[in-house]
């Protein structure tokens, strides 16, 4: 502090207008920096910049045509979706670099639907950027409750907003937008009506483990995805195999219906001490402690692929439904409401594991069989 500067008790600073220090000795701000919190300087609005379409009718018409073109292209892609849904065969595929072989219908449906909604979006954005009102507006906060006059004013404001979009003045945009949105709703209805129903419950119950699909002969258990047969002596205590039926090979050779067949036929095979199996039926349907169960969770159909060797529990990773293999895959935890269906297995003359019959109950989610 300089010799000519003095400070009164309770004040701080170097000769400036000061505010008394707080009672606890903490310094406070100078009086020149203290402002009234109820009043702030109004910064105002920046100068409004007019767009080309605001002053030039030709530019406005050009923007209108551009927006309508985007909506029109959206309608075209929606029509491509609808035609492709019926015209492209389910088995048609092509090679996609970096991905592999893909179903032609899936790719076309995805791209056409994506472009349809994308064009509606960018058309709406271009419409707002070029033709809708962009005048800056300020609305002061006020009490939540409104009077009748204020409500009427709000309705008038909405009507003014609709008018500012110029949708009534530009029928080309109005009708092209209506057509794009109207057509875009058709694929959604088509997916619901054509893909989700009606449901044939008997078809859902049938799997390719049925010996009828193999000329009445027992079906060999095959490693997935190698599709090689499994010998009984290859299944050691605590080991786990992911299994598909031998009849799947026909679908693989033909290249169609593979995913549908695998979705219901997936099986998990494991071996444990036969003395640990507490349910006689489960023991009888296995071979020397080797048991086969559906891999499809009875909750919502996820793949039950996690086997705890020490506890002999099967765990569904989706919602943690847990099945006890020693109790015929009884549900001991989680949202599943019934055990995993067991596949009866035996050994053929060559020592390979085979299934002499299909599943005796529906595989997958319990809603296929509501009474249980």
From TrEMBL:
Family in the record: Belongs to the Rieske iron-sulfur protein family.
Places the protein is found: Cell membrane
Function statement: Iron-sulfur subunit of the cytochrome bc1 complex, an essential component of the respiratory electron transport chain required for ATP synthesis. The bc1 complex catalyzes the oxidation of menaquinol and the reduction of cytochrome c in the respiratory chain. The bc1 complex operates through a Q-cycle mechanism that couples electron transfer to generation of the proton gradient that drives ATP synthesis.
One Pfam assignment: Rieske
Positions of transmembrane segments: 67-88, 108-128
Main location: membrane
Keywords: 2Fe-2S, Cell membrane, Disulfide bond, Electron transport, Iron, Iron-sulfur, Membrane, Metal-binding, Oxidoreductase, Respiratory chain, Transmembrane, Transmembrane helix, Transport
Membrane disposition: Multi-pass membrane protein
Keyword Membrane: yes
Annotated PANTHER family: CYTOCHROME B-C1 COMPLEX SUBUNIT RIESKE, MITOCHONDRIAL
Protein name: Cytochrome bc1 complex Rieske iron-sulfur subunit
InterPro entries in the cross-refs: QcrA_N, Rieske_2Fe-2S, Rieske_2Fe-2S_sf, Rieske_Fe-S_prot
UniProt entry tagged with the keyword Lipoprotein: no
Domain Rieske residues, every copy: 264-354
């Amino acid at each position: 502090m300089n010799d000519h500067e003095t400070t009164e008790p309770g004040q701080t600073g170097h000769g400036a207008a000061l505010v008394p220090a707080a009672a606890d000795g903490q310094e406070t701000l100078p009086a020149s920096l203290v402002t009234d919190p109820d009043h702030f300087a109004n910064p105002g609005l920046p100068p409004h910049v007019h767009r080309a379409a605001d002053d030039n009718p030709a530019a406005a018409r050009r923007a209108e045509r551009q927006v309508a073109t985007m909506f029109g292209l959206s309608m075209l892609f929606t029509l491509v979706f609808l035609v492709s849904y019926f015209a492209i065969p389910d088995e048609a595929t092509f090679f996609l670099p970096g991905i592999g072989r893909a179903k032609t219908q899936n790719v076309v449906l995805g791209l056409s639907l994506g472009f349809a909604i994308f064009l509606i979006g960018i058309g709406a954005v271009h419409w707002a950027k070029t033709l809708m009102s962009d005048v800056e507006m300020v609305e002061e906060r006020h009490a939540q409750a409104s009077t009748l006059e204020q409500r009427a004013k709000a309705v008038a404001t909405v009507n003014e907003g609709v008018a500012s979009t110029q949708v009534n003045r530009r029928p080309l945009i109005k009708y092209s937008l209506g057509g794009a949105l109207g057509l875009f709703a058709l694929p959604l209805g088509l997916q619901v009506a054509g893909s989700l129903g009606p449901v044939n419950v008997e078809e859902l119950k049938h799997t390719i483990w049925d010996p009828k699909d193999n000329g009445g002969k027992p079906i060999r258990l095959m490693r997935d995805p190698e599709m090689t047969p499994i010998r009984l002596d290859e299944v050691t205590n605590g080991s786990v195999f992911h299994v598909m039926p031998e009849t799947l090979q026909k679908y693989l050779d033909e290249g169609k219906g593979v995913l549908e067949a695998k979705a219901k036929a997936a099986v998990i095979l494991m071996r444990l001490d036969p003395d640990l199996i507490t349910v006689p039926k489960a023991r009888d349907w296995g071979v020397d402690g080797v048991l086969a169960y559906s891999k499809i969770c009875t909750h919502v159909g996820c793949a039950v692929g996690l086997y705890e060797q020490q506890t002999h529990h099967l765990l569904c990773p989706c919602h943690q439904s847990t099945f006890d293999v020693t109790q015929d895959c009884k549900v001991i935890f989680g949202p599943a409401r019934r055990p995993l269906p067991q596949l009866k297995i035996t050994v053929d003359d060559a020592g390979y594991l085979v299934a002499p019959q299909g599943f005796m109950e529906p595989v997958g989610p319990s809603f296929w069989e509501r009474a249980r």
